[in-house]
Amino acid sequence: MLLVQGHRYTVRAVRNRVWATAVVIAVAMVVTGVLAGCSDSSRDSASSSRLLHLGSADDPALRVMAEIYAGALRDVGAPVADDLIRGDDTALLDEMDRARVDLFPAFSGELLTSLAPKATVTSSDDVYDELNRSLPQGVSVGDATPVSATPQVFVATSLAQSSNVTDLSECGRLPEGLPVVVVGRPEPADMAAFAAQGCRFGAVESVGSAREVIARVGTAQAVGVVTALDAAVALDPAAPQIQALRVPAPTQDDAGQPSTPSNPATSPQSQSQSPSPQSGPRAQNLVPVYRTAALTRSEVKQINRVAGEITTADLAELARRADAGAEPRDLAIGWLGEHGL
């Protein structure tokens, strides 16, 4: 009887020890999970506590755009430094390599030219794709905005009507030898692109601002070359009517190759040649350039939301007000509020 009782006591003891062990394991697993969660939380907190630094060229439009990106990031809880780091694309990329700049706005064509001088692409999509391939390791670009700083040929509306000119491909109909007015020095690649479309410009006249270009073009005694964004900033409703020569979007032929629409009014010589995919200067669309490791997915998604809202006209108006003395950050906050960002 004692043996039986002893045997039963031994089984009970074993069962108790097994149960205790299971409880200890379960508690350990819960504690481990909690600690892991705390560790993940700590990592997230440490990551989000690092201040993001934005940069910008010393240009009213780009300064406002940098503040728009900064405000959009703050709206999703990202900590962003108050001051912008100034510099051109090359300087800002150098600072990005040192992890001192995390994001800056740039124009796709200009940035591509600095990174890959031998690149020949000109259309918006091709420039964006080539830029992605040319960026330094650890640097990315977000969605391109429709904000354009592509150089365009501007003429007085009266001159366009008298010459029956609407598109850049009809540039050869303008009177030969008209002076071409530019801000500073003309870009040789841009002038070559215009010449390839039949433009027969005369001497180059250099002026100090886009407003001076617009004023000179309004006389119908000259043509002007200025970016779409600068023209939008400079245009005054009271100024003489001017217009840009349109650059039709490239189409694709039956083989899927890029081509430009043929124009029945062009010369027989130009019609006999194979159409060129280049229809003007290299596209310049505004893009956010960011250090890949610096932004979370939600932060990248937020800056890409900006691309769906901002327009050339929007940024031109903001830049015009910034140039008149308004604070870029105040202008950005107002625009973000209007667009729910």
Describe this structure in words.
With 341 residues, this protein is an alpha/beta fold. The protein has 2 domains: 55-147 and 284-338, Periplasmic binding protein-like II (D-Maltodextrin-Binding Protein, domain 2, 3-Layer(aba) Sandwich); 151-248, D-Maltodextrin-Binding Protein, domain 2 (3-Layer(aba) Sandwich). It has helices at 2-49, 60-75, 89-97, 108-115, 124-134, 157-163, 188-196, 210-217, 228-234, 268-272, 297-307, 312-323, 328-338; strands at residues 55-56, 85-86, 103-107, 139-141, 151-156, 180-183, 204-207, 223-227, 242-244, 251-252, 258-259, 286-291. The chain has a 5-stranded mixed β-sheet with strand order 7-6-8-5-9. The chain has a 3-stranded antiparallel β-sheet with strand order 3-12-4, sandwiched between helices. A two-stranded parallel sheet has the order 1-2. Strand 10 and strand 11 form a beta hairpin. The radius of gyration is 30 Å and the shape is globular. The protein starts with a helix and ends with a helix. Residues 257-281 have a biased composition (Low complexity). Keywords: Membrane, Transmembrane, Transmembrane helix. InterPro entries: ABC_Gly_betaine_transp_sub-bd (IPR007210). The chain crosses the membrane at residues 18-37.
